[in-house]
Amino acid sequence: VFTVDLTDYDKLKDINISHSCVSSIALPFSNLSELHIDHCGINAFTLSNQEFLETIDITGCDRLTNVVINDCRQLTTLNFLFFFDLAAVTITNCPNITSITCSNNSSLTSIKVIGCTNLLYVDFSKNSNPILKIEISAARNLKEVYLYSLNTTTPPILPQVNTNLVVLNLANTQFDSIQFGNKSITQYNNENVLDLSMFFVNDSVENGFNVDLSKLNLNVQGMVNLKYLKLNNDSSAPFIISSNFFSGCKLLKRVFGYI
What we know:
The chain is mainly β. Helix content is 0%, strand content 34%.
């Protein structure tokens, strides 16, 4: 097990230390476009200001505990799957990332995605740690959010302004609501409300939102702690649901809005 220091090699474009005993790596600020460190003994991984980096492969880095990626402007896709020791993932100011998958990681306590303005797809499902905290901010173009099969009771934080969301999968989760941006979670009788009232059934605009509720594929099946759901519609435009839409929502008390 050893450290690799490449900070003085600023002309490197491709680094491949796959299947090695490297435990840490220091990278140059260079024209680096590809980084392959799969199946290494690396335990902490930080990427910062890699302006040209397009590809990262960290598959099979079983000792990985912490990932920080900042200001890597050419990255478009990131995948973190089945890292059983991975505790924290922080991704900031990577404007061209469109897809992040971070799932099946049993030790995760924190996922933060901040300033990834063109992010379209996130899958943070099947992370089993009950103290996991999830925050996504400044990603108003999100279309698909998959947060199913999570054990955490802490409500995830999603972008407050989102005009494109078409999939929100919250199935088989322990939390009872979502926090949107810095807005406080809606309360009713001192209990949290899953407040989706920013989604509308028409093209009206209010508080910066313009989302068609009828196009939202919402899955709340198995939200065992869900007590209240709030929609913003009227009787002339009900939110159409299936007969098993609330299956497994054993604590559900009330729906505000029309279904």
